[in-house]
Input
Amino acid sequence: MSEFGQVLRGAFGPARVFEQRPLAPLTTFRVGGPADYLLETRSSDEIVDALELAGRHGVPVTLLGGGSNVLVSDAGVRGLVIRPRGGAIFELDEQHVRADAAVTINGLVRWTVLHGLGGLERWAGTPGTVGGATFGNAHFTGQLIGELVTGVHLVTRQGHECDVPVADMHFGYDRSRLQDTGEILLWATFRVERGDSDALRSTARASLAYRKRTQPLDLPSAGCVFRNPEPGRDVVPDGIPWSAGALIDRAGLKGTASGGARVSTVHGNFIVNEGGATAADIRALIDRCRSEVRRQFGVELREEIVCLGDAPVISRS
Ligand SMILES: Cc1cc2nc3c(=O)[nH]c(=O)nc-3n(C[C@H](O)[C@H](O)[C@H](O)COP(=O)(O)OP(=O)(O)OC[C@H]3O[C@@H](n4cnc5c(N)ncnc54)[C@H](O)[C@@H]3O)c2cc1C
Output
């Protein structure tokens, strides 16, 4: 047992500290090697304590939420992976609820619907946590989750906590300030309004049904791999929709495989793990999609998924 492992066990008990823990089962892609150390925290205070311990021992820290937007390298992640679990939701007043980073988006939707609070019901079926959704400013049918956030509580890598107004979060399409600063979300406050639970539930069900119709939910994936092209930044040839999935489809890449990974035949922006895929298989498909779309349409696809793990991923093709 390593020295830092002993320190973590001393602080958090043995049940939630793991060494050389495979991360694949903790991601929706179901690929990726081990974390040197994995800690499952139960509260914001524990996240801050873990950061402090890691800082004191010079151990790098990576946050893992629901693992639904990450590609973990086959070599795994060096240092400490913090995986916030559980978390609480509070109704601050009739217009605001506060949810810890660890709360799942589906848990938050269920809670608000049950309490007759509207605003989040359309997000039913979005995998992942409040932390991951805020980091990437999750989007669904044109709405960004950041549009519902009214404020956040963050901690820096050095352990300094601060309240940040939403205007300073620099939310944009697939973007938030957290991507630039490395700050960690401890909780976020969302705008809600009084609603009828039955009506909210039926909106949530409609969102779930839409997802089932349009996304390949029967196989492991990380949702959309690439960001959509952006007006003002990209130029998409006439007649092709401004979507990464449409570009991949028109490039003839749907169904293309590499090892156990395949570009979904249902949705061109999804790569699915058909069983036994490696991160290298997925990386090879990502590179193939990017180079073909660039060659055929002159559009540079940018990744929406986050690659975790510092070891280089070797492409097979
Ligand atoms: C089937 C499927 C459908 C999907 N549909 C959608 C969709 O409609 N819209 C959409 O936007 N996305 C979608 N996604 C992608 C994914 O669900 C979202 O991006 C989600 O918000 C990621 O949250 P997570 O907790 O899983 O983050 P993770 O994948 O665990 O992490 C993503 C990034 O966030 C960082 N992070 C996590 N927690 C914190 C924290 N507390 N503080 C700071 N950084 C943190 C991680 O370090 C990592 O860099 C889909 C994915 C799947 C598998």
Summary: Helices lie at 3-12, 44-56, 105-114, 130-136, 178-181, 197-214, 244-250, 279-297.
